[in-house]
Amino acid sequence: MIKIKLQTNIWERLKHLKWVVLSIFLFLPIPIHVYPLVMIGQARKVKVRSWMWLGMIALFAELALLGSFIVNFGTLSQAMLLTLGGSFVSYIVGNGLLLSWSRPYLQRMDMSAWQELHWVPSIGSANRLLLSTKEVDVNIFINRLWYYKGRVKSVAFKRTIARIIELFNILKTNDMMLAERFVIRHETLLHTLKKYCELQESNLPDKFRKDNIARLQHIILQAEAAIEKEVTDFYESSLIGFSAETEAYMQSLRNRKLLK
Predict the structure, then answer these.
(1) Quick one: what percent of the chain has pLDDT higher than 70?
(2) How many CB atoms lie within 10 A of CB 164?
(3) Which residues does the chain have with pLDDT short of 70?
(4) How far apart are CA 103 and CA 46, in angstroms?
(5) Residue 50 contacts by C-beta under 8 Å, 6 or more apart in sequence?
(6) What is the pTM of this model?
(7) Residue 175 burial by Cβ neighbours in a 10 Å radius (0-12, 13-18, 19+)
(8) 50, 72, 157, 242 — which has fewest CB within 10 A?
């Protein structure tokens, strides 16, 4: 079977969030809070326009608070109290937004390791467009897998979906036509994941929900094993042909007495 190193290392993910953690610890502005710059940096990395606009608005707000602080420095006027209050509120709201963005940010960072990201108006609008598209090609199939992976709560099951994603990405990189056939063959996998997420988030009786989630999970685990076997068989068959080609090449070199 093909061995794949999954990009789910917790330290790697924390590394992506180091500036978020730093922004939270830097409570005092120096001279402004760090979070607007972190917002802009994250927006540029994962290409989300709404995050960029919010980051720019927050930066202008922080600069306005800095100007107010300089003007009113040394006084205990109402304007100074409002400035300090505004700075505190800005810190809470800004870092709260950064924390709420962590999951989609990490998800798009994972996606960027396999494909080029394109600018989207917002995460919500990108997801709505992704799910409303009727024709499913290889990229849409993989992006929907990313979407459902983000909704799944089980860490172990996230790894299962991540492995399926990586298998499809490897196949897409090496043989796009075969990847397209795989998409048609395994399109039911998306419907199964959709039902899984709906059950996971439903208010149905606990036993009914758990039993059906376990059943769907078993189906997806079997699908993962089948996809892995198909991809492995494809590589084994391609290596057989490649070995024959290389052997013929080496024999031609020996015939020309270029090898000892």
Answers:
(1) 90
(2) 21
(3) 1-10, 238-245, 247, 253, 257-260
(4) 12
(5) 121, 122, 123
(6) 0.78
(7) middle
(8) 242
